[in-house]
Amino acid sequence: MMNTDTEQWLSLSEAARRLNVHPTTLRRWADNGDIPLMLTPGGHRRFAQSDIDQFAHNRHGLRRLSGIEQVWADRALTVARAEIVAHQDAHWMMAIDEATREQNRVMGRQLMALTLQYISNGDDDQLIEEARRMGREYGRTCLHINMPLTAALQASMFFRDTMIETALQLPENVNIRPEANVRLLRRINTLLNAVHLAIAEVYDATDSVSRS
User: What is the pTM of this model?
Assistant: First the structure.
C-alpha cells in the first residue's frame, strides 16, 4: 500500500512533462482509469511519482511488443473492460466496497502490465516473484473485508479466464502459428497460477494461526 506521507505528488503538468506527453493526453488516460490519481479538495488532479514512473516503464515495454504479444495485448485490454462491465452484478463483485474496488482496479492494471512483460520477455523469476507479491497483497485485501477464499479466487480467476479466452480466440481471427499460441497460453498460465497460489497461501496462513 502506498505511503502518502512519503510519496511525492505531481501536478497534471509536471506529470505530463515526466511522461513527455501533452497534459490533455494524461488527463484522458487518468479519466479512463489508466493511471491512478488523487483529487485535492479543490478538485485538482495529483499523481504519485511512483505511479507515473511505473506507467512510463510499462509504456516503454508495450512499445517493444510485436507480433502475437501485441495482438493479444490489444484484444485482452478491450475484452477485459467489456467483461468487467458485463459482470458488475456478480456476487463476488457486489461484495466489494467502492474503495476496495478502486484498489483492485489499480492492481488489475498492474497485473496486466506484468503479464505483458512476462509473455514478451519469457521466463523471468523476478516477474514471477512480483506476481506472488501481488497475489499476497490481493489476498490480504480480501481478508481485510472478510471475503471468503472462494469469492477471492473467483475474482482473480475471472481475470485469468479473460486473458486465456482472448488467447484461445486469436487463431480464429489472425494468422498465428499454433505453437506460438501454445507458448503464449503457457506463459499466461504460469504467471497467473503464481498469483492464485499466493492468494491461497495468505488464507492458509491465517487459518493456521487461528487454529494454533
Answer: 0.59
Q: Could you give the CA distance from residue 194 to residue 130 in angstroms, rounded to a whole number? A: 9
pLDDT tens figures, 111-127: 877 887 787 766 678 88
Superfamily classification of domain 65-211: Globins (1.10.490.10)
Cα dist from 209 to 75, 112, 136, 152, 204, whole Å: 43, 32, 16, 20, 9
- The C-alpha torsion from 140 through 144 and 147 to 148, rounded to 10°, is 60
CA distance 133 to 141: 12
Task: Tell me the CATH number of domain 1-63, given options 3.40.50.720, 3.40.47.10, 2.70.20.10, 1.10.1660.10.
Answer: 1.10.1660.10
Rama region for 25: left / alpha / beta (φ>0; ψ in -120 to 50; rest): alpha
